Amino acid sequence: MDSLHDHRAAVTCALVGEAVRTFGEIRLRVTGISMLPSLWPGDILLVRRCRAAELQPGQIVQYMRDGLLIAHRMAGSEGGHWLARGDRNVYTDPPLSDAQILGRVVSIERNGRKVDPAFTGGRRLAAWFLRRSDLLARLLLRLGMAVAQ
Amino acid sequence: MPILVRTEDPAFSRMLIGRYGGFVNECGSPVFELDTDVVSAGKASDDEDDLRVRLEGGCWILERGDFHAECDFKRRRGRIRLAATPWAIDAVLRILHSLLLAQQGGLLVHAASAVRNGSAFLFAGISGAGKTTISRLAPADATLLTDEISYVRDGLAWGTPFSGELAEPGANTQAPLRAIYLLSKGPENRIEPVSAAEAVRVLLECILFFAHDGELVGKVFDSACELAARVPVRRLFFVPDARVWDLVC
Q1: If you compute the radius of gyration of chain B from its CA atoms, what whole number of angstroms results?
Q2: Are A4 and B197 an interchain contact pair (Cβ–Cβ within 8 Å)?
Q3: B99 and B59 Cβ atoms separated by less than 8 Å
Q4: d(Cα B239, Cα B130) in Å, to the nearest integer?
Q5: Domain range holding B200?
Q6: Pick from B81, B103, B125: which residue ends a domain?
Q7: Does A75 touch chain B if contact means CB atoms closer than 8 Å?
Q8: Which helix (H) or strand (E) holds B125?
Q9: Which domain holds residue A98?
Q10: pLDDT digits (tens, 9 = 90+) for B56-103
Q11: Hey, are the CB atoms on A10 and B197 less than 8 Å from each other?
């Protein structure tokens, strides 16, 4: 079952990559919580194809790793590789190559409304707290889901 | 998956028996029952662009110029109003099968398929890819399951009455699916490997599915991924030459 799951994940990544290369952009749904409070599960991201060199620190990059699709914030570069990190994560992700990068998140749709992807002061502060407390993250998630419903 | 079709129209009944040949039988436990109202009026149509398949109040509504069907999947019953043409009932049965199969991890695929030496081989491709051509080239010891629409479920390929240019129903039998070939016409007979993503992408192009339903579309995608993971998928370039069958099985 694991190999089937891995196969499906790899195929999904490859098809998403192909769709971005062919059409220039793609819409993806957020499932994880590593980018709270900037991205919430259920958000729809509009990802537009771009070259890694065009990305600026602070922008949200969509990339692929080990059959996973990940949207994290650009943190800079190091030794010819790109660094990204989830807003709620303590550590940066392993360095990214150009080939892993699909594009940049240019807009976020949440409950039918457009949300700015910028890392504002308020989000930075909230992320700082969320990094230090899983309990707070779970509470925020529960509260956010209740508000959405 | 047997579907019971009830009709009080003798001419329509004769048409069904003539068209579906070996697939018409007395089945005591159909998975779905369809009552038909055959009407003479109706806009003649076999255009898929004109087709609408939607879920409304728990009922699947299937409609095109020449038919309107309401299918309750919980009660496993439906009613169709349709023109007395083979294309109308053919389309309804294909769509119904595609919906029923999607729920069970099965697929209807634009593909020819055949059984040889106890194993089934599937030749997938959109219109013009060569499904009928490769079917016509099949050797005498191959049993043709269909030259147009293949039925895949539980690792088996099953015969279908849905025919293409051959205009003949396939054999009502099944066999374990051993390989899938993505058809391409080429200057010579040869087989090339394809990546997992390419295999799924082309299979998705060939899968019959008409409903705009997120959950079922997800199931169809999962089924296509599983099929490509379990059964070898390769690209087959071929010329209209019977020797291609020695290459594939």
Answers
A1: 18
A2: no
A3: no
A4: 9
A5: 107-248
A6: B103
A7: no
A8: none
A9: 2-148
A10: 988 999 999 999 999 999 999 999 999 989 999 999 999 999 999 999
A11: yes
